[in-house]
Each structure stands twice: as C-alpha cells, then as structure tokens.
Amino acid sequence: MRPFQCFKRQWRLFLVALFLLPWVKVIDAFAEDSVCARVKMEVAQELILERQAFDTHMRINNGLDSITLENVNVEVTFLDKDGKTVRASVNPADNSALFFIRLQSLENITRVDGLGTVSPRTSADMHWLIIPAPGASRKVEAGTLYHVGATLTYTIGGESHSTEVIPDQILVKPMPEMVLDYFLPCDVYGDDPFTPEIEPPVTFSLGLRIKNNGGGTARNVKIDSAQPRIVENAQGLPINFTITGSEVNGSKVTNSLLASLGDIRPDNSANARPLDHDLSSQWEVCCLRCRVLPRR
What is the pTM of this model? Predict the structure, then answer.
C-alpha cells in the first residue's frame, strides 16, 4: 500500500427547490374582479464545492516466471489512533460508517474480491477513493488521525497465502456542512389590469443564503441554476419566469446562471440572488421560505 494522496474533490449536489406561489391574481376580463389561484414553480440547481478525499494505491508484483496468482482478494482496513477498528462502507447512504470507500480503477487485474488473478511477471495496480463521513474528524480542528491498511490473500498452485499490508496514516480534517435557505419577496409588481396603461413587470429576487454549519471551510462554492419551470398550474394562467442575472453578497457579478461564492468559512454564510422576471403581468405573490439540507 503506497502513501495516501489527500486531495480536494469537487462535489456536486443536485437540488430541486419547489416554490408554491399561493396567491396568484387571476383577472376576469369581463368584470373588475379577481380570484386567487395556486401556481407551483420549480428551480433546479447544482451546488458545487470542494471537500477532502483520499486516493490510495496498491501494487501487486508477481515476479514468478510461469505461475499465476489466483483468488486475489484485497480487504481495506481502517483503524483509529488507538488501534480500534473503524467501520467503512461501499454504500454512501450508510450513516453508521465513518468512511465511504469505492474501487476507482484496476490495471492488469479485473477483480479483487477473491476471484482476481495476476499473470506471471506482471504488476497489478489498484486505486480506491476514500471519503470521510461528516463525523470522522471528531470536530478536532487540527484533524483526527486514522490508519488505513489492507489484508491481501491469494493462492499459488492451490496453496493459500495471506499478507497484512502495513497501515499508512491519513489525517481527516473537519468538513463543511451546508444549509441552504431560500426566500421569495412578499409582493411582486406587474401590470395593473384595472388601468388602461401597461406597466412593465418589476424584476424581483429569489434570495438564497448558504450557511456553513460545519467545522471545515467550504472552498470554491458555486451555485448553478436552471431557468424556473412551472410544474403546477391547474387554471392555465399565462405566467412564466426567467432568471436574467445574479448577485453575490449584494454585488451583481454576471448575467450567467452560474454564481461563484468563493470560500465559506465555518459559521459563516454567503448570499446569492438570481434575478427573476415575470413574462406576464396579472399576478401577485406572497412570501415563502424553503429550507434545503443537502446530505453527503
């Protein structure tokens, strides 16, 4: 087992925010009156940030001239600083594990689950991706030490062999835990249907606050938005929305749907405001707040 490479892996969380617009004014063309209706709007977003991960590499050298290593099995093991076994899982939804591990690549070997083979005078290479769970750092700012090793078993000519790979050390730092809060304005203004003039609709903001409740800094945070989509409109209202630009921490940065928020330190937050524009005019919106908690 070669030394571990610690790197910052880019993570993408796919979010779908549903906003219920409960008070949409519908105008009766034949009477100066209005009724209330409900419209549901969906905004698909992608949250991008960097977090800690580890790449580990094992190489098996078969120096024999004519004998194949068979039934090759590699079991990666995790120990804490006191030598106690730590649970790791291949299932990212397993909340009882402190590490998620995934086999990334194989070269000159097709399996490492007890059915692998290494041909004579060949070197086999394996890479695993190791991702700490949110609690793996134990909230220690300097990081928490773990030992990662492996047990290698194989057969030569039907005879079983086992090798304990000397553990290497990894230092797990606290990671960010992001909380997203969405805000809609209580009042949005468009054309007044009871006047002969056509007033243009007023651009409004869909507010987003991203707070880091974790112990580690979220680096290179970006939020990428799709255009809003009406997903529920039972009365067939002529209403639609378009994102025309974005602001970050009060400053307009780009007309793109991608907003870069930079680094967000622990217990700090950043604000983004996609600017929405209504393509129709005969409606009103009440305020709404939607809270999204992305998981690892």
Answer: 0.68
